[in-house]
Task: inverse folding
């Protein structure tokens, strides 16, 4: 099972919006509405941002939102803030309790 | 506080073995499915193993199948990963991660990670 494809990096100025794509296949992103997104700061463990494509756990700011169309899921950060500078990972369910992560995207706040 | 704490990482020679542990606290450990996820230096995350709450269902990624074993001891709120025939490609930070549950799919709680270095 190959990793989901994410852009290596995206950037934006404070207050702007950025969108990170996560492209899979008919076996993962295209088949299940179980895509999750994680934020990871350097040297830290990942933190859950979005689950089940669009749901946000309590405590996650509303500027983080998720969506999906076909084989591509997306994470949008609206109103970019300095603390959003991190690496973002997508993850999709594969069935039979298996999962696959994306390649990871570094977000730079200019 | 809901928490996962890994231990057992270290330096091991190629072909060697290592056993990682993860202790959960602040929640009913036996009620949750658990996973191991690893991250090689400078790389993305890789899911490698899953175990159901009772421990009756286990899954392993192809990259570790036949070499790694996942287990749990619910009486001790602990999760384990027994790793053998280690290669340099297994060098990574290993995280234990809790499944969100509730008919949703995500890893909602992560440990701080434990580093495994395979080198001669």
Result:
């Amino acid at each position: 099972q190959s990793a989901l494809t994410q852009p290596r990096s995206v950037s934006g100025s404070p207050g702007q919006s950025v969108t990170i794509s996560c492209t899979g296949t008919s076996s993962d992103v295209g088949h299940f509405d179980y895509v999750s997104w994680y934020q990871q700061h350097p040297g830290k463990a990942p933190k859950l941002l979005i689950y089940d494509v669009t749901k946000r756990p309590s405590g996650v700011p509303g500027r983080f939102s998720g969506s999906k169309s076909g084989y591509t899921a997306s994470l949008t950060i609206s109103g970019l803030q300095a603390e959003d500078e991190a690496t973002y990972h997508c993850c999709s369910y594969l069935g039979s309790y298996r999962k696959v992560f994306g390649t990871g995207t570094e977000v730079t706040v200019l | 506080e809901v928490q996962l704490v890994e231990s057992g990482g270290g330096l091991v020679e190629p072909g060697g073995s290592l056993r990682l542990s993860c202790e959960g606290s602040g929640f009913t450990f036996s009620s949750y499915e658990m996973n191991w996820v690893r991250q090689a230096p400078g790389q993305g995350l890789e899911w490698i193993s899953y175990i159901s709450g009772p421990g009756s269902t286990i899954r392993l990624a192809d990259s570790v199948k036949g070499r790694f074993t996942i287990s749990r001891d619910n009486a001790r709120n602990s999760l384990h990963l027994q790793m053998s025939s280690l290669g340099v490609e297994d060098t990574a930070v290993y995280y234990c991660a809790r499944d969100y549950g509730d008919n949703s799919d995500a890893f909602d709680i992560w440990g701080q990670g434990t580093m495994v270095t395979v080198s001669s």
Observations:
- DSSP finds no helices and eleven strands in chain B.
